[in-house]
Write a structure and sequence with these properties.
It is built from 19 helices and 20 strands. By secondary structure, it is α/β, with parallel strands linked by helices.
Length: 499
């Protein structure tokens, strides 16, 4: 503990120079706990539950040209020394130390797609010949094409041939060479079409200018392995984008402590979600949380950024005097001369025929053909609410329907794909909110910040639902600093460091 505190104090001295928030990559998934093992579906699910930003995984080609996930080449718990010399059936017959089977890349992608905000750093392992490596690259790209994985993918490899092949095969793919000794000039990385570079700490410990130059050129940097406070310190000081760690949970705790120190010094605007963050769903603002807002308002500008309209938010908050950006940015209210006033309202056209057709198709597929009221609610702003129980469900049915959002999260990838030209959120207790693409909480807050002269680094968002499909999700996806509130009654405890 003493060492941790000393390290955190040392970090405080350099916080004002930090311009990038270093993200955590779970090296081979989150397996540093009982019942898990590296590069398994169990370790992937653990990383998803831990909510890290990225996962590293390793892919090999079997003798019958199947793609399997294993660090290798030896298969742990067996006498097989090289997975690349085995056929797929033999590999799949092996039981790993935690009881999992060696996963196929298809299985891994299927699970990873359940957390679309998770970045996969897919390491293509070196193979004996250039021909086998080219085939590996072709097979990986074909599967990524089939499963539409590119929004989540970064391709990495120690083999420069494999890196060059991915660049050749897929225009726009994010590719990074991995190195434990060789260093690359920024110009070489750019000339070869690479998105960045992944270094072992020893390769750049005495060549930090390479990290700084890559960052200035807009390239991403990864450092590995980062399992200690000293190495995390190094990564943060040099604005590294990702640290690859075998102890991602410990790194989360460390980064959390660092961020709290940084945020108190640098933040000027705090934007709040309402339901689940400051209040129970559609319930009044408590005296305790009202006091939190009062205290923060003496040091920062505070605003509300909600899914509902401004008047509804203002009323629910007991007419608390605060600027409100409502309807995902389609509306704005301020307190002018002590009075609530709508200062901006925007509307958008919506294709009702398309909405009606697609939502009815979804109802039939998932069994929600019985509903009360109307099947869809069309708001004057252009936002559409797709309530699975209709627009007028019984209150008890509404509360009991999907309290943990599991039903809607299962549907979300398909709903998002169908309405890909819109922003789609899991809203309320039974519904999806569908808005014009440009309206979401991230863009709403950034628009307000630009008008007031705040930079992105000066903003902090406080919300409860940053998971894929959550109405705060774009805040996480587009890299705005945020605090997750799991229990609105604990808001004072979670935010006391800002006082």
């Amino acid at each position: 503990m003493k060492r941790l505190l000393t390290t955190i104090i040392a970090f405080a001295a350099v916080l004002t120079t930090m311009s990038a928030q270093t993200k955590i990559m779970a090296h081979r998934g989150y397996y540093a706990h009982p019942g898990s093992f590296e590069n398994t579906l169990t370790s992937l699910k653990g990383a998803q539950k831990l909510a890290v930003e990225a996962v590293e995984l390793d892919v090999h080609l079997t003798t019958d040209d199947s793609l399997v996930i294993l660090h290798g080449p030896k298969i742990a718990g067996t006498n097989y020394a090289n997975v690349q010399q085995l056929d797929y059936k033999t590999v799949r017959s092996c039981v790993l130390p935690n009881g999992d089977r060696v996963p196929s890349l298809r299985e891994y992608f299927t699970q990873a797609k359940k957390t679309t905000g998770l970045t996969l750093f897919l390491e293509l392992k070196a193979h004996p010949t250039p021909e086998r490596e080219t085939l590996l690259a072709e097979k990986v790209i074909a599967l990524c094409d089939e499963m539409n994985m590119y929004d989540q993918m970064v391709f990495i490899s120690f083999s420069e041939h494999l890196c060059d092949e991915i660049v050749r095969l897929k225009k726009g793919a994010l590719v990074m060479p991995i190195s434990s000794s060789k260093t690359f000039s920024t110009q070489e990385l750019l000339d070869r079409g690479f998105a960045g570079v992944s270094y072992h700490m020893s390769a750049v410990m005495n060549k930090t200018h390479l990290l700084d130059e890559a960052h200035e050129a807009g390239l991403q940097t990864v450092l590995w392995p980062v399992n200690s406070y000293d190495l995390a310190d190094f990564a943060i000081r040099h604005n590294v984008d990702y640290v690859s760690s075998d102890q991602p949970q410990a790194m989360q705790n460390l980064m959390g402590a660092i961020r709290e120190l940084k945020w108190k010094q640098t933040k000027k605007l705090i934007a709040f979600d309402l339901d689940g963050t400051l209040t129970q769903h559609k319930q009044p603002l408590s005296a305790a949380n009202r006091a939190v807002l009062d205290t923060l308002a003496t040091r920062y500008e505070i605003i509300m950024a909600g899914a509902g309209n401004c008047k509804r938010i203002y009323t629910q908050m007991g007419e608390y005097p605060i600027t409100i950006v409502g309807n995902y940015g389609m509306e704005e209210s301020r307190i002018v001369d002590g009075e609530f006033k709508i200062v901006r309202t925007e509307k958008a056209d919506v294709d009702r025929k398309f909405m009606d057709k697609k939502c009815m198709e979804l109802r039939k597929k998932y069994g929600y053909t019985s509903y009360k009221g109307d099947p869809l609610e069309y708001h004057e702003s252009g936002m559409v609410t797709f309530g699975l129980l209709g627009t007028k469900p019984d209150a008890a049915d509404k509360l009991a329907f999907d309290p943990d959002k599991i039903k809607r999260r299962e549907m979300y990838p398909e709903v998002k794909e169908i309405f890909k030209d819109y922003s789609v959120f899991i809203g309320g207790t039974t519904s999806f909110d569908i808005t014009p693409k440009q309206y979401n909480k991230y863009d709403a807050v950034m628009r307000y910040a630009a008008e007031k002269g705040y930079s992105k680094d000066e903003i902090l968002f406080v919300g409860d639902d940053f998971a894929d499909g959550g109405n705060d999700s774009q805040i996480r996806i587009y890299g705005m600093d945020y605090i997750r509130i799991d229990d609105y009654t604990r808001l004072p405890e979670k935010l006391h460091f800002l006082f």
